[in-house]
Structure formats: C-alpha cells, structure tokens
Amino acid sequence: MPSVFTVASKEFSDIIKSKRFLILVTIFVLLVIVAQGTVYVSVSSSTQRALPRGFLGSIAYSLVTIMSYFAPIVGLALGFDVISGEREKGTLKIVLAQPIYRDMVFNGKFIAAFLSVSLAVLVSSVVNVGIAIVALGISPPPEDVVRLIIFMIFSILFAMTYYAISAFLSTATRRSSQSIIVGVILWAVFVFIIPVIASLVASALVPVSFTPQNITRSNATTFRPPEMQQYTSQMAARAQISSLINSFTPNYHFTSIAHYVLGVYAGAGTIAGGRIPTAPSSSASTSLVMNLFSAWPNILVLTTLTIVLFIASYTLFIRQEIR
Amino acid sequence: MEYAIEVFDLTKVYRSEGKEIKAVDHLNLKVEKGSIFGLLGPNGAGKTTFIMMLTGLTLPTSGSGKVLGYDIIKESLQIRRKVGLLPEGFGFYDHLTAEENLNYVAALNDIPKEERRKRVEDVLASVGLLEVKDRKFGGFSRGMKQKLGIAQALLKNPELLLLDEPTAGVDPEGARAIRELVLKLNREGKTIVLSTHLLFEVGPICDSIAIMNYGRLVLQGKVKDLLERLMAEEGYRIKIEGIGEVGAFAEELSRIAGVRSVRLEGKAVHVVAEKDIRVEIGKLSAKHNIEIVTLELQQPSLEDLFIKYYKKEGLSYA
Ligand SMILES: Nc1ncnc2c1ncn2[C@@H]1O[C@H](COP(=O)(O)OP(=O)(O)OP(=O)(O)O)[C@@H](O)[C@H]1O
Ligand SMILES: [Mg+2]
What we know:
The complex is a heterodimer of chains A (323) and B (318). Chain A has 323 residues and is an all-alpha fold.
C-alpha cells in the first residue's frame, strides 16, 4: 500500500523546485537584507546610542513586518491551485485511477505544503538572524533564540492558515484563476480594508474631546492632568474597538502573537489599526511562559481556523465529482 | 462464462443547477473475460460516466456492479489495483519527464523501487515512447500524450484495460498503432474495453459492442451475431456478375421465393433476399447459360449497423 508520503514527497519536491517558490523565497530574503541594512545604517550612524532593546529589539520589527506579508503570500501561492490545478490539468484523474484513497492525495499535499512553508520560514529567519549577527556584531542571548524559534513556529502556523484558506478556495471554486483572485481579495480585505474600517468605526464611536499637543511619551507618563487621563482612556477605548474588529482577520492574531513572543508592535494588522498605547518593551521583560499564556487566545483562533478550513476542504474534496 | 465486468441497473444522476441529468440510466451490461469490447455512442451518451463508475472515480446513484469479481462501490481500491484506466481528458505533470511521470504512477501502485525502472521502460517501449522518455510531458504532442496515458494504464500489468477514447487526437498512423497494441495486449490475455464515438476507429477489432445513447443501451452483442441479425433484418445482399444474357435471368431471379428485390447495374445484378440463396442462383445461371464471374454475399459492415441504429434513434452520425 503506498502511503501518504508517496504523494507528499513528490509534491514537496515539486514545490521546492518550482519557480514560484524560489522567486518568493528569493524576494523575501532580499527584503530581509534591505531591512537589516536599514537597521545597520541607523545603528552605525549613531555610535554612542546602544541598540534599543538588545538583539531582539533590533531585528524584531523588520522580522515581524516582513513575515506578516510573506507568510500569507507563501500560503496563498502554494494553495491556490492545489486541487483546481490538478483538476484543470487532468492529473487528478490519473492519480485517482491508481490504487490509493482520495484522502491520501489531499493529506499528502497538505504535508508537502507544511514542509515547504516550514523550509521557507526557516531559510528566511536564518538569513534574517544571520545578517543581524554579522552586521550588528552581536549574538543573541539564549532566551532570544528560544523566542525566535517560537516566532518561527507561529509564522509557519500563520502561513498554513493562509494555505488552508487558499486550498479551500481551490477546492471550492474549481478554477485556479478564480481561486487566486478570491484569495488575493480576501487577503487585501484582511490587511487593508478591515483595519481601516476598524479605526474609522473606533473614532466614530469614541470621539476624542482633547488633542494633546507636544506631549512626548516621557512627560506623558510623568505629567497627567485630567484631560490627559481622559484622552488616554478614550484612546484605550478606541483601541479596544478596533482590536475587536481586527480580530476577524488572521493577521491580527498573528501580529498579536508576534507581539507577545518578540515584544514588538508591528505588522500589517496593527499598523493601520492604530497602536495600543502601552510601552512596547513591557512584554519582552515578562517571562516567555507568561507571554505565551497571554497569546493563547490568538494561538487558539489561528489553529482552529486552520483546522476547520482543512476539514472543510477535505470533506468537500472527498465528495466532489472529479470533473 | 466468466465476466470481467457485470453491472445491474447501474444509474448515475448528476444534479447541476437544479436540473437532473441521467448520465447512465439503469444499465445492464456484461463484458466477457478475454474479449475486446467496444462501447459506442454519441457525445454525452454516458460512456465516460460508466467507465468512471467501474473504477470508483465516481459513485453510482443506484444499481450495482462487479469488476473482476470486486464490488464497484465497496472494493474500488482492489479494482484500481488490477484495472488500468485511460481516463478521458487526462493529463500528466508538465514539468516532469515521461519517465518521471510514470515513476510517480509506479510509486502510487507500490511497485518496488528496484523494479520501477524496468517496468517503466518496458511500458514506454510497448507504446513506442522509449526514445523520448527524458522529454517533459509539457512538450509532448497530442498523440504522444495519449500514448503515455496508455503506458500509465499498463504499468500495473492490468487484467482489464478501460480505454476511454484511446485514439482521440491521434493521427491515423498513431491510431493504427494503438489498435495493434490493443490486439497484442488482448492476445496476452487482457480484457479490453474501448469507448469511442468513432466506430471505424475501433469497430473492426472488437469482439462485442454496445451502443449507448442517453445513458441507456441501444444495442448490445457479439459483432458476429449483430451482423447476422442485421442481414436478417435488412436482407442478404448478393452481387452477381456474369457473361451472357442477364435480362431474362434477372427476370426469373425475382420470382424465386424469398427474393425481395433485383436490380440491374450494367453487367452486374444485385439481389436482396431473405436468406442466402447463392445455390439457387448458381442453378438458375446454368439454366440461362450465364457464365458466372462473381457471386458474392456482401457482408454488411459495422458501419451499416451503426448507421442503422443511429438513424433509429434519430441521431446523426459523424
Ligand atoms: N460532473 C458532471 N456534472 C454534471 N453533469 C455531468 C457531469 N459529468 C457528466 N455529465 C453529464 O452526463 C452526461 C454523460 O456524459 P459522459 O461524459 O458520460 O458522456 P460520454 O458518452 O462520455 O460523451 P463523450 O463522447 O462526449 O465523451 C452528459 O450529459 C454530461 O453533460
Ligand atoms: Mg466520454
């Protein structure tokens, strides 16, 4: 009996040899290099200033920002034709004419995508961290290494969420051209539209009565007149509302997890959605376990979404007519 | 009699956009082991649907069937182990070579790694693609693609081959090569089912045929029996060419019992009769002093059969 790995190994080798995959990984690595270069320039031009928050602080922002774009794109790129492509080419008929069960084809492809996504995330993260070590001349402390590895795991999860979305579309729409269009639109809605809607709704619901002038973060914490307090609470209410709306996007959950694990605010979801006015360094100082505990709801949402979409596509595929 | 395929009231109803299409409608059919069976019918007759149901690629709405003794619903995996299928409208992976594509199929059939190379080369040789084994499938011509499809079906060394439109898009020479391959495989003991809407492509090599239309059987039987039946229905056509005074001879011929018509065409006389009356014709010609040059019973062709039943169904025949 051939196993699911017969399909998985063939699919994996197809993906990693494909132009699509190589181009994406190359672009990503180049982006990482550019981002690191910027950090390097800003650090070396002001020699007296130490790195803002050590190793993680100097790379986290670019890593999270880039990953919040890269992971969905890789997921979409690998998934949009996973079933529809085979159907269009007629290879599905050849494969299913062999003595295998249908679910093997589906599962094999999912495993292959998981391995490829993991490889892509690993390569890009290693490049990112490697450049940081070489260019900035610092080596990460053990806790930072652990945090980076955990961040990579959740990046893989995030990419798999998008893979599950596009694999579902590929199974449901039957045409790869349709599935890629719907996938990209959905992505754009999650990244650009919902965050904008979120902040519009938030500012409409909570009008701000007072606009603080010339207040920097340092004197804002020491100097708190009543107006300032009111302002802070209004901004917090806005942030809450926009978080609530943004939580309908997978991107929000990924950014939140990244925030807890690496201790930064970054990424597509919150850039447009308004930042939560707390000091970003606070989470890095708390323990990793505590951070993961705080990120737990977000982790649960991403995992559940991925599993539900997988089961939905699987069920659909098993029951579908081949032509 | 042992059957490779037996189906009972096999039915497939597709539902699309609220409409029901009976692609296969209470089909009862048996295919003898060791035969070459031609499944004929116009576009949309249900041939492909029938073949897909036999291999578990689509599930019947109702009815049952057995292929090589295995139940088509519960044991389709075992069926796919022993049945080579050339699906309609199939494709391979464009970026892989012919050999790589077949290696994958071999792996899916659990052919041990060490045997794969030889098996793949054997089947490539048998369809005449060995020289191009390192070329990518994407660059193949229609005919080459079709041959690779057949090679794929042969990899598992099947007892039964289901070939859905095997000569589609293949040039006449290629089509002949495929027919010869089918005959050779049949001599090796494989049962072969061919589906087509072009009778002349495969008709001559079939032992039995079934004509489908609107998911139902229009006609089914051994080619030999069907032709005899057609002759009985349409009459036995006899062509006589002789030297001598044929006018009076033809005149008397038309009065023989069982003769339906006599027609003169130059020196030739065409007779349609209810039975084979060549002996009587011989006697009569002697009486009229006619020296017979030709006396032949004109066999109707499968073509005639096909046209007749297509006409009966009110169909045009391409
Ligand atoms: N997946 C499907 N959904 C809906 N209807 C279908 C589906 N597949 C086939 N049909 C319909 O079922 C009928 C039989 O189609 P089928 O492909 O079995 O015919 P065929 O004899 O193989 O024709 P052809 O010679 O064109 O290959 C047609 O009316 C077709 O439109
Ligand atoms: Mg067909």
